[in-house]
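[Discussion] Sanity-checking designs against the backbone

I'm trying to build intuition for which residues belong where. Below is a structure token string of 257 positions. I'd appreciate it if someone posts a full sequence so I can compare it with mine line by line.
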């Protein structure tokens, strides 16, 4: 399928590894001029060098100022953005009871306020040209909060509320706004979470991973490239009537539609 996005300028936040990198690679393979960005600037540049017209930038996505600086640097590098993929470094795991207010403030800055700042900066151009794609990489915790991930559950749900509201406001301008929710995708983040659960429960990591695997009807963990392919579709021309929704890529893991 021709996604019709060759030559489009795309910013993929937090794209030096995992789902962000997979999404950026999928867009670059479609011919987009992708800005790969993250704290590991050298890695961002290494990935970008694999694709013509792509660039890698350093980014601090933990603050509003960092988000605005990234947007400005991305526009300088590839021109006004047509596609914005929001992604944030994951906050620490932890329980809801006794949640540290400072940790919550930091999580909301990274998961909600910085992404919102990037969106607001990109919106005038998207509206003016009558075409745009805003996609947030979320979490299955948006639909079913994940035990032990209180900060992530709270921040990503707040971002979902903002994006759903925004989608209704910009749809007539040809701008779509969606979230893509991963389930158990084989990334370093997933493996780190399994290690944390194992340590806290006094179990072997292999047992924790095997238990998780049994909860997935597909019988396997997802590949990051599979996630990236769905993300690229949602950023493409054929998805022009898909907006204001959260799409899951989870192998059937959650027990709800």
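Best answer:
Here's mine. Compare freely.
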């Amino acid at each position: 399928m021709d996604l019709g996005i060759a030559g489009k300028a795309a910013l993929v936040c937090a794209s030096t590894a995992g789902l962000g990198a997979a999404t950026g690679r999928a867009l670059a393979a479609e011919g987009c001029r992708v800005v790969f960005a993250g704290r590991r600037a050298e890695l961002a540049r290494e990935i970008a060098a694999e694709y013509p017209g792509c660039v890698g930038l350093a980014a601090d996505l933990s603050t509003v100022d960092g988000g605005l600086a990234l947007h400005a640097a991305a526009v300088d590098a590839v021109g006004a953005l047509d596609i914005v993929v929001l992604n944030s470094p994951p906050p620490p795991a932890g329980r809801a009871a006794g949640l540290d207010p400072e940790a919550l403030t930091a999580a909301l800055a990274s998961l909600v306020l910085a992404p919102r700042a990037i969106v607001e900066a990109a919106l005038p151009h998207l509206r003016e040209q009558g075409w745009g794609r805003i996609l947030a990489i979320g979490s299955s915790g948006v639909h079913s909060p994940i035990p032990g991930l209180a900060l992530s559950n709270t921040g990503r749900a707040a971002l979902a509320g903002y994006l759903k509201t925004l989608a209704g406001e910009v749809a007539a301008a040809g701008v779509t706004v969606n979230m893509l929710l991963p389930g158990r995708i084989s990334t370093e983040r997933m493996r780190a979470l399994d290690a944390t659960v194992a340590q806290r429960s006094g179990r072997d990591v292999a047992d924790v991973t095997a238990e998780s695997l049994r909860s997935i009807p597909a019988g396997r963990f997802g590949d990051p490239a599979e996630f990236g392919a769905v993300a690229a579709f949602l950023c493409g021309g054929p998805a022009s009537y898909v907006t204001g929704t959260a799409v899951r890529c989870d192998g059937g893991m959650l027990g709800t539609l």
